Amino acid sequence: MELPEILFNPLVRGILGICLMSAIFLGAMAAVWFERKLSADIQQRYGPMRTGPHGLLQLVADAIKLFTKEDIIPRNADRLLFVAAPIMMMGSVFLMLVALPFGAIIINGDTYPIAATDMDISILYIEAVSAISIIGIFMVAYSSNNKYSLLGAFRNFARMIGYEVPLGITIVSVAIMAGSLNIVEIAQAQHPLWFIFKQPIGFIVFFIALMADMGRLPFDQNESEEELIAGWITEYTGMRFGLGFFAEYIHLILGSMLVVLLFLGGWNLPAVLTSNNVLGIILPTVFFLLKVVLVMLFIIMLRWAVPRFRIDQVVDISWKKLLPLALLNLGWVIALGLLGV
Question: What pLDDT does 331 receive?
Answer without folding.
Answer: 92
